[in-house]
């Protein structure tokens, strides 16, 4: 499962068109056609990943060197498990990977999976027990269902990012890193201030596997510390 920056030649195929079938809307037909013609979708199937988003994490790791052998990784909003699969591969048998989601995740060899709401009171304790220590990396690819209203969607994803950051603050070891999905325009000002306060560097990145027409991007914060001024790179 090494190729990530673009789909392999074997994954390329002639453009497939889908006819609008009875009971299927035009929008769902367009979505299905996009899936069938997406090289990352084909490559995910070829390499055994559960979702095309696995390549987003792989590409972020190639750029920022987030995953290392023996690390403890917490993956929030993990379903269906693509990011968790990548994390397990990267940290190896000496590492610990914990995937958390409200939905049930099919078992992934080498990972501990929790069906858990991160807002409940005992969430931090359950996560700490599963990690068997502090995390070196906290990941969040969480996103709410799109409403079609840009301002509403932005507020929802900022709220999820803030919730993930709250978990990261209680779970990360000194020097650890945090990655979370945000929308185009970057991170909300107050949240960005908090991230810069608690991390040595804070960057935004849009991996190639993120669709060009998608407003999503990722905030990558590295060098966790409890307090103090920070600098951006």
Structure annotation, total helices? 7
Approximate strand percentage: 15-25%
Per CATH, the class of the largest domain reads Alpha Beta
Total separate domains: 2
Radius of gyration of CA atoms, rounded to a whole number: 18 Å
Instruction: Specify the CATH homologous superfamily of the largest domain.
Output: Vaccinia Virus protein VP39
Side-by-side strand order of the widest sheet: 3-2-1-4-5-7-6
Helix content: 25-40%
Description of the molecule:
- There is one protein chain.
- By secondary structure, this protein is of the alpha/beta class.
- The chain folds into two domains: 18-47, no CATH class; 54-224, Rossmann fold (3-Layer(aba) Sandwich), CATH 3.40.50.
- The chain contains seven helices and seven strands, in the order H-H-H-E-H-E-E-H-E-H-E-H-E-E.
- It has a seven-stranded mixed β-sheet with strand order 3-2-1-4-5-7-6, with helices on both faces.
- Helix 4 (82-91) links the parallel strand 1 (72-76) and strand 2 (96-101).
- Helix 3 (54-64) packs across helix 4 (82-91).
- The longest helix is centred in the last third of the chain and has 22 residues, at 150-171.
- The protein is globular, with a radius of gyration of 18 Å.
Task: Throw out a few tags for this protein.
233 residues, single chain, seven-stranded mixed β-sheet, Rossmann fold
Quick rundown:
The protein has 233 residues and is an alpha/beta fold.
């Amino acid at each position: 499962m090494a190729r990530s920056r673009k789909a392999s030649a074997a994954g390329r195929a002639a453009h497939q068109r889908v006819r609008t079938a009875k009971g299927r809307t035009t929008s769902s037909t367009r979505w299905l056609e996009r899936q069938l013609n997406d090289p990352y979708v084909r490559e995910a199937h070829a390499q055994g990943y559960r979702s095309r988003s696995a390549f987003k994490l792989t590409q972020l790791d190639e750029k920022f060197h987030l995953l290392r052998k023996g690390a403890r990784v917490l993956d929030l909003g993990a379903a269906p498990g693509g990011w968790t699969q990548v994390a397990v591969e990267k940290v190896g048998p000496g590492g610990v990977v914990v995937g958390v989601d409200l939905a049930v995740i099919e078992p992934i060899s080498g990972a501990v999976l929790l069906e858990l709401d991160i807002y409940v009171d005992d969430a931090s304790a359950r996560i700490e027990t599963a990690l068997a220590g502090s995390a070196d990396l906290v990941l969040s690819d969480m996103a709410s269902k799109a409403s079609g209203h840009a301002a509403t969607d932005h507020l929802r994803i900022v709220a999820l990012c803030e919730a993930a950051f709250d978990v990261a603050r209680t779970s990360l070891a000194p020097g650890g890193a945090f990655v979370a999905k945000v929308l185009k325009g970057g991170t909300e000002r107050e949240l960005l201030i908090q991230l810069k306060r608690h991390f040595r560097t804070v960057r935004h990145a849009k991996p190639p596997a993120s669709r060009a027409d998608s407003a999503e991007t990722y905030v990558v914060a590295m060098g966790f510390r409890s307090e103090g001024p920070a600098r951006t790179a």
